Inverse folding.
C-alpha cells in the first residue's frame, strides 16, 4: 500500500513538475520565514528585557507642572516656585524614603552644538545635573568618569558626552582630556556614556551633561525649568516616597495640604 502511494505521488510530481516545484518552493519559503521571525522575535524579547533591566531602581520624577492638568489654574501653576539645588538637599536630608536625589535642567530647545577642531555635532540636548546623574538614570560610562560633587560645587567646566557626540567629534579616538566648545564656552571632556541602542532604535545618545552649577553660570535662561528625580530607598514604595516628598516640599514652601 505504501509503495503504491509513493509511486502515485512520484508520478504526479513528474507529470506536473513546474507546479510541484513551485509548491515545494513556497512551503520552503514559508518555513524559512517563520523560523526567521521566531529568531528575530526571540532576540527582540531578550533586547527588551535588557533595556528594562538597565533602568535599575524606579524613580519619582518631580516637576513644577502637572502636564496632564490645565485650565483655570494655569496662572497659579506658573506662580509656583522653580526647583533649586537646595530643594534636592532638603529632600535628601528630610525624606526617610528617599535614597538618591538628582537635580537637573534639560534644555528642551536642543539648540546646542558642540565643536572640536573641524568637527561638530548636530543640535543636541544639554543637561545640567547633579553628580548622581548616571546612577539615577542608569547611564553606563564607556570612557573616563562622570563629574564629582566637588566639581559641581566649584562650577567646573567639565562635560560627560553622550555616545552620539563622542562619535561625531572624536570617532574612535580617546576624547578624555580634550576640550570641546559648547556655544562658545570651552569644556573639558572627562567621560563618555556607552551606547544606549534601544529595541526601537538609537535613543538617548544625542546629549551631553555638565554640572548644573556650570549650566547656571553659562547657559541659564528664564525658560529653564529644573526638575528632580528621586529613588525610593529599599523597603519603601514610590507611593510612600511621593507622599513624604509632597509633605516636605509643602512645609518648606508654606503650602497648605489639599
Amino acid at each position: 500500500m505504501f509503495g503504491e502511494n509513493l509511486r502515485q505521488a512520484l508520478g504526479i510530481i513528474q507529470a506536473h513538475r513546474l507546479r510541484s516545484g513551485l509548491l515545494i518552493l513556497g512551503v520552503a519559503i514559508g518555513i524559512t520565514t517563520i523560523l526567521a521571525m521566531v529568531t528575530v522575535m526571540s532576540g527582540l524579547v531578550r533586547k527588551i528585557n535588557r533595556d528594562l533591566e538597565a533602568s535599575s531602581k524606579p524613580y519619582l520624577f518631580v516637576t513644577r507642572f502637572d502636564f496632564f492638568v490645565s485650565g483655570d489654574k494655569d496662572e497659579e501653576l506658573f506662580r509656583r516656585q522653580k526647583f533649586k539645588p537646595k530643594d534636592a538637599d532638603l529632600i535628601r536630608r528630610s525624606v526617610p524614603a528617599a535614597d538618591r536625589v538628582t537635580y537637573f535642567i534639560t534644555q528642551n530647545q536642543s539648540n546646542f552644538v558642540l565643536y572640536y577642531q573641524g568637527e561638530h555635532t548636530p543640535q543636541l540636548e544639554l543637561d545640567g545635573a547633579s553628580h548622581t546623574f548616571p546612577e539615577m538614570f542608569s547611564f553606563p560610562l564607556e570612557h573616563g568618569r562622570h563629574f564629582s560633587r566637588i566639581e559641581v560645587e566649584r562650577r567646573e567646566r567639565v562635560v560627560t558626552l553622550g555616545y552620539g557626540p563622542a562619535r561625531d567629534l572624536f570617532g574612535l579616538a580617546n576624547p578624555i582630556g580634550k576640550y570641546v566648545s559648547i556655544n562658545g564656552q570651552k569644556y573639558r571632556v572627562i567621560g563618555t556614556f556607552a551606547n544606549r541602542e534601544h529595541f526601537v532604535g538609537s535613543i538617548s545618545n544625542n546629549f551631553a551633561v555638565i554640572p548644573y552649577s556650570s549650566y547656571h553660570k553659562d547657559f541659564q535662561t528664564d525658560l529653564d525649568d529644573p526638575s528632580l528625580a528621586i529613588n525610593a530607598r529599599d523597603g519603601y514604595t514610590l507611593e510612600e516616597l511621593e507622599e513624604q516628598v509632597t509633605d516636605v516640599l509643602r512645609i518648606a514652601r508654606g503650602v497648605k495640604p489639599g
Notes: DSSP finds nine helices and 13 strands in the chain.
